[in-house]
Amino acid sequence: MASATARAIAALISKDLRLLMRDRGAVFLTFAWPLVLASFFGALGPGFGAQLDDGDADRAAAMTVLIVDEDHSRASEALVAELDADPRVTLAPAELDTARERVRTGEHPAYVHIAAGFGAAPSVLEPTAASPAPGRAVELGVDPRRRSEAELLTNATQLAAWRALARGLPNADATAPIEAVEIEFQTVHAAVRGPVARPPSPYAVTFPQGIIWAVLACAATFAVSLVEERKRGTLLRLAVAPVSRLTILAGKAGACLVAIVVMQITLVLAAVIGFGVRPQSVGLLALALACTALGFVGVMTLLAVLGRRTHSAAGMSWAILMGMAMLGGGMLPLFLMPSWLQVAANASPVAWALIAIEGAVWRGSSLAEIAPACAGLLALGGVSLGVGARAVREL
Amino acid sequence: MPDRRGPRTPVDLGANVSLHAAMAYTARPVLELVDLRKSHGRTLALDGVSLRVGAGEIVGLLGPNGAGKSTLVSCTAGLLAADHGEVRLAFSGGVSGSPRDPAVRRQIGLAPQALALYDELSGAENLRFFAGLQGCAGPQLRARVDAALEFVGLSERREDRVKTYSGGMARRLNLAAALVHDPALLLLDEPTVGVDPQSRAHLLSNIEQLRAQGKAVLYTTHYMEEAQRICDRVAIIDHGQLLAVDRLDALLAGHAGKPQLVVEFEGERESIETDDPLATLNELAQGRAPLGFRVERPTLEQVFLQLTGRSLRE
Ligand SMILES: Nc1ncnc2c1ncn2[C@@H]1O[C@H](COP(=O)(O)OP(=O)(O)OP(=O)(O)O)[C@@H](O)[C@H]1O
Ligand SMILES: [Mg+2]
Predict the structure, then answer these.
(1) Distance, in angstroms, between B161 CA and closest chain A CA?
(2) Domains annotated on chain A, with CATH
(3) Residue pLDDT, tens place only, B254-265
(4) What is the largest CA-CA distance in chain B?
(5) Smallest Cα–Cα separation from B261: which of B270, B248, B252?
(6) Cα separation of A231 and A241, whole Å?
(7) C or N terminus of chain A, fewer CB within 10 Å?
(8) What is the ipTM of this complex?
(9) Preferred mutation among B71, B120, B133 to probe A, highest tally of A CBs within 10 A
């Protein structure tokens, strides 16, 4: 009996997947389109996020860096003045502990620490007989994952240090390719999240979005499948077969799950192999993707049951899923939304999926941080599946 | 009107319906419908239908559009719950009960009136799916699919998508999908509707083969010629009521009147009902030479006309 049910489910799954593969429109929508979207918007470059982001426009132009000057010498003050003059950097003074804490919490992207004794140490222009002197050094506190910020700040600091030295020199060539100061990187593992976190690469943003799209498209495609079966007449044959309604639903859910997982794997592989996206945690990513898949399979099942009688009800499935996507940041990255909408978006399962997936890919979230989103998705899937299964006394 | 509502009084059902004969025909009914009633909203689609179908028997259900044929099939298959009455199924091997029971369902093969196939799948894929749904697997499944395709003559087109099939081929596959799991009872709802003569002949001979295999077949149609050709017994249904259930010859004898002798003479034609056409022809031919003659055997059309007062074809 159990094996007959298992066979029936296997038959249902393979039939639905075959039908999906032969429906060119559905294949395009679920497989090709997310790939195209993710690649295209990713290719628009690193500016993609910043340009759309008017609320953050000034920060995109100038990064606000905390400056800790413990030397208070002429040399340190000259360096600070030159760094502040750089259009890419805006300085905000702070104490060292505060600065470290703020970078760690992700409130600021980096700090520059000029320790006492900076001015007293010999500069690169003051050759000393006692050869390799310790020289002048500053400490940059930055999260190494924020490579572009670290690079920008390194360049800006070198340039500022050189200019500060050149001030005192007649006819100095301000572009001389000399390392004016030694830079010591202080690694700060920032708990970056929310609006402050910046993705390392545009593809790291667009591929999670592509995955969400694929999941929604799969769910929407399968949500209309019961009403499609009714239209074809094949629902009659399903209904006279010696299988329960639940088995038929399980077949639909299974097929949808397989389609979603295959699509997720395809997109992740494309992102990793083709576009150099490096998920920060493969384990968490797998968890996030699994929870997303299960959550939306549940939603699909409920929608399929509700929409099994009429096509208009089935069409509603699209509307509901797209609404979730719009609100949840599936169309526009969450970090680009105005803050009030980001709050409202927390109600959308699409946002939970994004929190979990982006958390694993580039936000550096911990398990504890994505757990609520994952739990929400699983609960949603379970509840929808349960309600759908109860509602379907007859097909 | 005689009481057709149940098996209470097997005798004395009047000339109109020889229910006794109908019920007594099968020693071991596979399907037994007892006083089925079913309404669709305000439409009374079935109004007290009782019927038996035995193993190795084809029972034709003949009626005009909207008579309630498909509703009867749906109730029998367990797709619709009857408002009143009972569907009893009993198969060899002790499987019996209502069509809601999965073990009973496995013995039912339904060919719905509307084609129920996946256009984007091939014929073989369709059958594999339906057989898998019935719990078949492995070599048994393959053998069943091959046999079913062979049976309906679609082996050569097995790997082609159904959307490339002609109407007749799709009908044949619709039948194959009903019998791929080797059920004991076949419910065929207008299996020949809208097909070419070639496919029709194929389908009819298929159904006769099924009878030879010992299957019970309930065959729904509004083509009298088909019912007349292949059915062991014919049930005539109109407005949800069974007006008559009997062997074909008994129906014809009871309701269609006598054979009609049509004789043509110079400038005139005579047509006479007679039990003995030869003797009547002899009488008529006394003294004048007929140019030609023919005997028209009674048809189900006349049975229907007599029972309902209207023609089945209208
Ligand atoms: N789902 C339904 N809702 C409402 N009325 C229905 C429904 N199905 C059938 N009917 C009505 O019930 C009656 C019997 O319909 P049914 O389909 O059983 O007839 P049929 O004999 O199969 O006709 P046909 O030869 O056209 O297939 C008809 O009057 C029909 O209009
Ligand atoms: Mg019908």
Answers:
(1) 11
(2) 2-49+199-393 (no CATH), 54-187 (3.40.1710)
(3) 877 788 888 888
(4) 77
(5) B270
(6) 18
(7) N
(8) 0.79
(9) B133
